[in-house]
Amino acid sequence: TASDAAKEMARRLPQIRFVHIPEGIAVEDYTEGEALSKRSIDVFELGDKHNYFHKKLIDSRLSERYRLVYHIPMKRKGLQLVFEQWGTFTQKIADTKITVSFPRCMRDPRGIGCVDTLTMRYWEGMLSRCIILGHCPQELIDMIGYNPVVEADFVDPCQQIEHILQHLLDYQPLVDKNRATACRHAPWKRRIPIIFEEIEKLI
Fold first, then answer.
1. Of 100, 31, 90, nearest to 69 (Cα)?
2. What is the strand order of the sheet 96-101 is part of?
3. I want to staple 102 with a disulfide (CB 3.0 to 4.6 A). Which of 18, 49, 134, 187 is the partner?
4. Strand runs (DSSP E) across 70-198, as ranges?
């Protein structure tokens, strides 16, 4: 599902044909939620955290002024889940104003290198009508024709977040557009015909 990986594998193994199939998601699992101004969770760092960005939020004591949700690392036990049940997770993300999402290549460049790819975290935020703060993979921009993400300010992310939270109405049209776009582009059913078409070429 990573186009950069498909290109690299094609370079290394030219005798094999590699096809990039973008990440999909079960759209029906996610609801549009209330308008941004009516939601109770201010910031949800979705999935693995960007350590530098997260430290900036913690050092500023943002959580003393706003409701901030994130995973807590546990020694020798992996991650402690914020929401133990899937239904609770989808309900809570639909009650979130801002989700923070960065590609893994920015969170862990030594582990994955320069692969910048679309993951379901972006679809989850778009389908739940959250303001997505972070960085948008080029794959997503190429697919839908625009950038649905508010690019993060690494110099003063807390000031950026406070400004966003104070101007939620300005972002409502964007999150409405993002959900409609995700409903068209995110379903796995859009990927299946492409997969079958590629399989038929091999028969």
1. 100
2. 68-69, 41-45, 96-101, 131-134, 150-151
3. 134
4. 72-73, 79-80, 96-101, 131-134, 150-151
CA 26 to CA 120: how far, in whole Å? Answer: 10
Residue in the structure block whose two tokens are 């955290």: 49
The Cα 57–Cα 63 span in angstroms is 8
What is the amino acid identity at position 154?
F
pLDDT digits (tens, 9 = 90+) for 182-197: 999 999 888 888 778 8
| Stated length of the chain | 203
Model confidence at 75: pLDDT above 50: no
At 137-180, the pLDDT tens digits run 988 999 999 999 999 998 889 999 999 999 999 999 999 999 99
Q: Distances in Å between the alpha carbon of 62 and those of 52, 82, 111, 120?
A: 15, 18, 29, 27
Environment class of 67 (CB within 10 Å of its CB; exposed 0-12, middle 13-18, buried 19+): middle
Where do we find the tokens 């998601």?
A: 25
Whole-angstrom CA distances from 68 to 44, 127, 150, 161, 201 are 6, 20, 18, 11, 49
